[in-house]
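WARN retry 2 of 3 for item q-0093 after timeout on previous attempt; input resubmitted unchanged.
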Amino acid sequence: MTATPWEDDRRRLAALLRDMAAHETSLLRDGTRPWTWWLGRAVVHGRRHGYVNTLLIGAQWRAATDVRSYEDWRAAGRQVRKGETGIRVLSRTGRPYAVFDIAQTAGLPLPPAPAPNAPPEGLVHRLAGELGRGLPPVEADSVEYLVLAWLGLEPEPPVFPVHAFWAGAEAGDRILRTARRVHDRVRDPSGGVLPDAHRYFRARLKASWVPAYLAGRGFPAAVQRRRQIGCAPDSPHALVDHLRALGHADEAIVASGLARHGASGRLHAMFRDRAMFPIRRADGAIAGFLGRRRDGADGPKYLNGPDTGFFHKGELLYGLHEVRERLAAGARPVLVEGPLDAIAVETARAPEYAPVATCGLSLTPAHLAALADAADLGAAGVLIALDDDAAGRSAAVRAWDVLSRVGGPLDLASLHAGQDPAGVLAARGRDALLQALRTTVPLMDAVVDAAAARAGGPLTTPEQRLAALRAACGPIAARPSGAARQVVRLAARTALPAPLVTEVLADHLAAG
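OK item q-0093 returned
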């Protein structure tokens, strides 16, 4: 088959980029540039990009400070400005694609990174020695330098030979992989168990049922990659054996919520044959996982890991870390139930929304506190997009007890036919989901209606109508700014005169 002109251009660009990287490597090998030059690029870009792309970014834009793809900037709530020329890099398969520096984007400043805690003296050196066992000294020294720099500790660079004869993709990527693992171990309260498990789940994604299932629900490969979704194999022991081979003790594996002791005393994996969603702390470290079974399989649709010393379901919101930059730019938090709902809202490509999921739990004060730390709730308020069924409406009403203290607007998205956001995306597409998010009613409407229904029943007698009115006064008193709307609604619902409704509400407010 004859290649198209576009395919020929892409191949020529890929060859040009490979030549550019080879030239940059030759400058390191012949001593024209010191090895510390590449380490400086790796400090800035090495946590997101591999060896070759750190060279390509440095060669094309030396002042770049934060380089991401167009889609990743959208997910962060920023837009690449029109007319900007991308920095060309190579994918793992060798395809060229464009990335952009933050200076090429528009939006409010990103939130500052959490202040790092200095690790115990000698910990980085010890871990670098353990995880980099067998590395040549120049690579081991490079790993230690990168980790200390990523931790914000401003280390002095080691002294390297003038000619970096080791420079190349094999050594550079090995250094970066090892440095990331050491960094994970230092930052991670599980001692590296959870990051190692995450890498294991990610490595098993491609050959599993999960990518096709997610793509069928409207979540393409780019979204799956951005959300770092993985797959737990259908094996009771494979993960445990893998973690043991990496040097993790059984006690650490159990304490991380990844395994439990069976009746025979043998360890069994907590998650089997499930799509795996990492749940992160505010600093980005993985705290635990949520696993979704395949359709038709036995067991609960979603399985949370158990509470551990660092994973507390009532405190963590899925996706909060991933949308923290969008929230800092003023996006409105969207409260959903599950991870697929959160990813569906993100897939709607509306930077004004920042989805977080309670993972099937009722909203807690700790959840709200975590959200308030990341967003200006007094300005943005909260949009609730739970399932449009009896359970979802009940959950929205229960959330009122926690959300009523929020200063900003509280609204319900208009989902229909019993669907959740992921269901709307799969059935009707992105535009329909976006329209549902933008068509809202005040949450107080649902809360007032629920209170009136509980107290007034069928509202067939004057006593029932008055009981409904009095019960509805409680939630209105919590947010009196919405009282005028609710007076009109209650008068219509109870068939009581609006002046009487106003009088009863005023008496309630005065008594309170």
